[in-house]
Design a protein that fits this description.
By secondary structure, this protein is an alpha/beta fold. It has a single domain, classed as Rossmann fold, CATH 3.40.50. It has a 7-stranded parallel beta sheet with strand order 4-3-2-1-5-6-7, with helices on both faces. β1, α1 and β2 form a beta-alpha-beta unit. α1 packs parallel to α2 and α1 packs parallel to α7. The chain is globular and about 40 Å long. About 40% of the residues are buried. The mean pLDDT is about 95.
Length: about 180
């Protein structure tokens, strides 16, 4: 049986006790509860919270780290079962997308926005090639920034699923199989 993996992108700055931490932890619990392994960047913040939630629900946790890039970080968080080092930031993102059936993005900063952009662009290219696009779910917190602007069409925006609640997350995951 193949392992079903969903990658989750999020901020390294998220702190315990914040709404963003609680959201990440609940997403991890939900994913693991539905039988998905969770892959994240493997470090602290939202990555740790989603890992913690998945681990608490009995899930497998993968950390795709970039030790050569983040020399100040001392390795994957304590909830990671398997660390998968990548040589570069882009290699890290590519690895997370390659191993996943879908990806999700929690609230975050520039790094998370970069991850969303790469996943979104991959889904766009897959659709252009007549392939099934990678499902990309993003926290509703991203909605104001990702609304159609400039050359972003509504058809391109439709490649993203905005997730406002755990019910939305479950509905997103139900569409994966």
């Amino acid at each position: 049986m193949a392992i079903k993996v969903v990658s989750v992108f999020g901020s390294s700055r998220t702190r315990p006790g914040t709404p963003e931490w609680e959201q990440a932890e609940s997403w991890g619990k939900t994913l693991a509860g539905l039988g998905y392994a969770v892959a994240s960047g493997g470090y602290g913040g939202s990555m740790e919270a989603v890992s913690r939630g998945a681990k608490a629900a009995g899930g497998l946790v993968l950390g795709v780290t970039a030790p050569d890039l983040f020399k100040s970080r001392s390795g994957a968080n304590s909830h990671v079962d398997l660390e998968l080092p990548a040589p570069t930031l882009t290699g890290r993102i590519e690895r997370m997308l390659e191993i996943s059936r879908a990806c999700l993005a929690l609230p975050g900063g520039l790094g998370t926005l970069t991850e969303i952009s790469v996943a979104w662009n991959l889904a766009y290219i897959q659709r252009l090639q007549g392939k099934r696009p990678l499902p990309v779910g993003v926290s509703a917190a991203w909605r104001p920034l990702l609304k159609p602007h400039l050359q972003i069409s509504s058809a391109e925006l439709d490649l993203l699923t905005f997730i406002d609640s755990l019910a939305d997350l479950r509905a997103f995951l139900d569409c994966l199989d």
